[in-house]
Amino acid sequence: MQKTIKNSFSISGVGLHTGEHSEVTFHPSPANTGIVFKRTDLNTPEVEKIIKVDFKNILKSELCTQIQNDYGHKVSTIEHIMSALHGLCIDNVLIDISNSEAPILDGSSIEYVNKIKNIGIRELNENRKIYKVLKTVSYSDGESTIKISPSDNLSIDYTINYDHCLINNQNFFYNHLSPEDYENIISSARTFGFKKEVDELKSKGLIAGGSLDNAIVLDEQSVLNNEGLRFKDEFVRHKILDFIGDIYLLGNSIKAHVEVVRGGHWLTHEAIKKLMSDSDNWKIIDEFEDDSNSSSIDRSQQDKEIPISL
Q1: Contact present, 14 and 209 (Cβ < 8 Å)
Q2: How far is CA 159 from the centre of its chain?
Q3: What angle do the packed helices 265-276 and 234-247 form, to 10 degrees?
């Protein structure tokens, strides 16, 4: 069944790129409303404040994920929020946001996950809808590739390659079978950068909020963060975290096996658009529907609260 959160909650912090304080407040939402952001800082009619999560609303960006409504208002750096919601199977939520950028927090999605766990999840009286991939779709840009193939669940085979002694070639296979898997394996992996590149970006006025509190930073030989790495392969795990958030811009979860080599936000966004450009590539099904029959669910039952002890 579709799910939302039990009650409202807020979380705040600095925006990675703007360096400005940002607060997001999550509210329960009815079935079939999806994930919706609302810019509470705008002095405009209510309809202009609403930015719905939809792949058609994606804005091009290399450094983060951004979406924009028909009135030109956007929200950015939403990939970790989207990843937490996707990982915990949250289908419907309204998110008030105090400016254009979500807080980066510790550079992972674990703080969002913990807040949602603490507040609880409510199951709604409506079947959960899933995109089922029917045909293999590939998208490439130079040495970067994504291949999306039919599968009975979401699995991700991700490979990265960096010329750094602590990364080099890393590969990780993640089978997204439960919220527990997402929390324990993926959610605490942090974003990362290289000191030389960080210094260059800051000199250009970018990543104004970036610090060792919200990212792994590497010099030529080592990790500069005092706590070190949370996983030896934290780098590729974070790439999977981002991908789980970015693929949720479809508006529904997806059944597919995905192979990614040297991926990034924009590569995922372009692969999504290519997948959706031909309706023969996919169909929408109920989550537990098999290839021929819909699952039988008693719709007369009342909405019920679900304890979330992950």
Answers
A1: yes
A2: 18
A3: 40
Angle, alpha carbons 273-275-277 (nearest 5°): 65
Residue 207: the pLDDT is 75
Can you tell me the distance from the alpha carbon of 109 to that of 20, in angstroms, rounded to the nearest whole number?
Answer: 19
The answer to whether 86 is a known catalytic residue is no
Asked if 28 and 116 touch (Cβ cutoff 8 Å), the reply is no
Identify the DSSP state of 103.
B
Report DSSP state, residue 25.
E
Interatomic CA distance for residues 85 and 214, integer angstroms = 20
Query: What is the residue type of 271?
Result: A
Active-site residue, from 73, 80, 265, 269: 265
Per-residue pLDDT tens digits for 33-72:
999 999 999 999 999 999 999 999 999 887 899 999 999 9
Sign of CA dihedral 105, 108, 114, 116: positive
| Per-residue pLDDT at 308 | 35
For the chain, domains (ranges, CATH) are 3-297 (3.30.1700.10)
DSSP secondary-structure letter at 179? H
Which contiguous run of DSSP H or E holds residue 21? strand 21-28
**Prediction pTM value:** 0.91
Mean per-residue pLDDT over the chain, rounded: 91
Mean pLDDT within 131-151:
97
Q: Which residues pair with 155 in a beta bridge?
A: 175, 257
Number of helices (H), then strands (E), in the chain: 7, 21
